[in-house]
Structures are given as C-alpha cells and as structure tokens.
Design brief:
This protein has helices at 8-11, 33-42, 62-66, 82-89, 100-112, 175-180, and strands at residues 20-23, 47-50, 70-75, 94-97, 116-119, 133-136, 139-145, 149-160, 165-166, 182-193. The protein is of the alpha/beta class. The strands form 2 sheets. Strands 1, 2, 3, 4, 8, 9 and 10 form a 7-stranded mixed β-sheet that branches. It has a 3-stranded antiparallel β-sheet with strand order 5-7-6. β1, α2 and β2 (47-50) form a beta-alpha-beta unit. The protein starts with 7 loop residues before the first helix and ends in a 31-residue tail after the last strand. 33% of the residues are buried. The model has no long low-confidence stretch (mean pLDDT 92).
Length: 224
C-alpha cells in the first residue's frame, strides 16, 4: 500500500475544525513545519494542540497561535513564544501545563491502550487538583489519564512508501510515541526511500553488527 501524498495540503486535507492534534518536536527540533504551514493556510480552527511547547512566535505552532487557530494547548512549558505567553495570561487561550515526564507517559499510555496510570509527580500541588490520589507502599501517587488524539503530525528523517520511519538524533523526541497515540498519523519526512524490509523487526529479538567478514568461495573453478 502506497501511503505517499504529493503535497502538505493533501496530507492534512481531512483535519476538521475542532480536531485534537498531537504535534511532534521539542522547541524547534523535529517539528513537522510543512504540515503546520499547510494547516495554517487551510484555516482550520478551534484546534486542541498537544505538543511539548508551541515553537516561537513566527515559526512552528506559533504560526497557528498568531492566527488564533488553536483554542487549547496541552504542553509542558511556554518556552520562547511571546504570543503563547500573552494569550495564556489574557485568558484567550486555554492552557493545560503538564509535567514533561507525565506528558510523555500519557502519550505513551494512549498508544499502548492504557487508560490511566499512577505517578508521584505533582502530588500535593495544583497538578493533582481534582484527581484521584492513592497510596502505594507508603507513598502517594496521583492518577493521570492517557492522552490520545484524533491526528498526529510527526517529523521523521527518512520514510518509505508504506510508512516505516527513521528519526535522526534529538529530532526523534516525542515523534515516535505520538505516532502510536492518534487515530490518524501524518508523517513529514526529509527523505523518501524505497521499501526494503524483508523480515519485520517484530520477529527479531537481538541484532549484532558483525566485523571482518571473510569472503570464502566453497569451490573455485577457473579456466585452464
């Protein structure tokens, strides 16, 4: 099945107003910038964006904040985005700030089909307000719900036509887990490569990079 589309506009064509989006990236590293631009140009509104932060004012998710296409941000920090800060403080943008480890685990849990989990992070703070708290082995833990989405916009280094993805260094960040946690995942890649999988990795438990192979010939036959 060939999953390749030719334009960013085609890739995001069915994202409706009011959708919940996961957007990969950490700061400006590993963000699906072409998909974000296409979403801005499409004028899609009333969005809930789940992303570590919102980029900067004139790049990344900051572009969607400038046009007020994002109604709610679920993020771990405001970062270097003055538009995000201003809209947060004046109440025009709904914001749910989540501890970063909890943020990552809520997304991972959604991808794994786990509806909720307990963590000690946030106990005794406003993070725990209105949430169930239990004691395990003498320590308090707060229950956090998983964090699924309608669509995930992720950025990878390489991908093939059936959707296998390879990430590059720190640009990996939240992208792999977000790709598992949405109903529809849309991947933006820097390089499209041919499909080359013979044995899917699910069947492999260990892999070794060998060294100094000897190119032996079992029977050598030569002309006289």
């Amino acid at each position: 099945m060939n999953k390749v589309v030719t334009t960013a506009a085609e890739a995001i064509r069915d994202i409706p107003n009011g959708a919940t989006l996961m957007v990969g990236g950490f700061g400006l590293c590993g963000i699906p910038e072409n998909l974000i631009l296409a979403l801005r140009d499409a004028g899609t509104t009333d969005l809930t964006a789940i992303s570590n932060n919102a980029g900067v004012d004139d790049f990344g998710l900051g572009l969607l904040l400038q046009t007020r296409q994002i109604r709610k941000m679920i993020a771990t920090y405001v970062g270097e985005n003055e538009t995000f800060e201003r809209q947060f403080l004046d109440g025009s943008l709904e914001v749910d700030l989540v501890p970063q480890g909890t943020f990552a685990e809520r997304i991972r849990a959604a991808g794994a089909g786990i509806p909720a989990f307990f963590t000690p992070t946030g106990v005794g703070t406003v993070v725990a307000d209105g949430k169930e708290v239990r004691v395990f082995d003498g320590r308090e833990y707060v229950m956090e719900r998983s964090l699924p989405a309608d669509f995930a916009l992720v950025k990878a280094w390489r991908g093939d036509e059936v959707g296998n993805l390879v990430y590059r260094k720190t640009a990996r960040n939240f992208n792999p887990m977000m790709a598992t946690a949405a109903e529809v995942t849309i991947a933006e890649v820097e390089e499209l490569v041919p499909v080359g999988v013979h044995t899917p990795g699910i069947f492999v438990q260990r892999i070794l990079r060998g060294e100094s192979y000897e190119k032996r010939i079992e029977q050598r036959t030569t002309r006289a």
